[in-house]
């Protein structure tokens, strides 16, 4: 067990156990040493930057002992490698370049007698930060480190037992380039297919009710998944209907257009663009992206998925992304159990997103609520797949469920409502909330890829 180990090893690595025997005198001496080496004392105050980040390992003993367990903050879960084999490693992706000052390892009974703590900018070339040649398990707390990389790896070279390697927790402290890592949870409200040509004076008009619900939730921002205004999405219609309900939080809305926005006699998307202005065209196009916390959001125009310009932009946008988690939203769903059914126009976009390890897609078009298990662009269920939500119950007349698609987990047609999404730095989940405030569906909790 190593209480303190650093770039200053002679006294604290070999002598600390002896010093501890002297009781109070030892504590005084350790305090003096920390004062003498201020970078070590400062390291203890650096933030934890590895919690919940994506992790991989050379092997796992079982699916319940995966690499992510060493970075989840739960002392009861652990990673374990296969038994009886050297070498083995576990690594974490910190999301961007970071300066690492401290690494704290909490070993299970299957510990490493010899190992290296290494960093890498690209996951290929590794630099050692610390080396252990006579480990005895317990807690190894490496402080006073100074290394830079996006990836950190613990490379076990000799087992301390006949079993494998097993860590309850691997904690990395330091500073992410550009400041502390994105932090904090936030809520988003999403809906598509919203403003029928009616107002609150009509008791059967649904979009004022979904708007009131959305406003009560008071999220960080709102997403619309197209067909925001029926039937032809003229500017006059936006002003007469949408603006009287969802327009109340227009400044906090991040919209995308649907097919009804293309029907405007003044020209495709004319009323949509005039009403939302730079909110809908923040980057000069009908598609754009933005960041919130550790999430990258991509707003797309599925009316022009057949144009290379948007697809090329999407590839470049995802390549430049520095956030760990990715969500995308547009109007036409690739998979749907509703009246419109599957729309293959979205498949090229799914392929790009899947290759970039995107997590979540939100769509409208079909007027029902539906959630799908993670799947790949070909519709095969897979743990590294994209989760899709159809949220077309914002106010337009509901469509019945017709042909249930593979991987569809829940379908609701009838109760109008919104999707309330809760995002964290490393995952997400959501509820479907009806206009009467009742939660009609609760999703599983997902971790980002």
UniProtKB/TrEMBL annotation:
Q: Which InterPro entries match?
A: Calcineurin-like_PHP, FA58C, Galactose-bd-like_sf, Metallo-depent_PP-like, PAPs-like
Question: Could you tell me the superkingdom of the organism this chain comes from?
Answer: Bacteria
Q: Does the keyword Signal apply?
A: yes
Query: Low complexity compositional bias: what residue ranges?
Result: 55-67
Sequence ranges assigned to domain F5/8 type C in this UniProt record? 36-175
Q: Where is this region: Disordered?
A: 46-71
Which region is the signal sequence? none
Q: Mention any Pfam family matching this sequence.
A: Metallophos
List the keywords (alphabetical).
Signal
**Protein name from the UniProt record:** F5/8 type C domain-containing protein
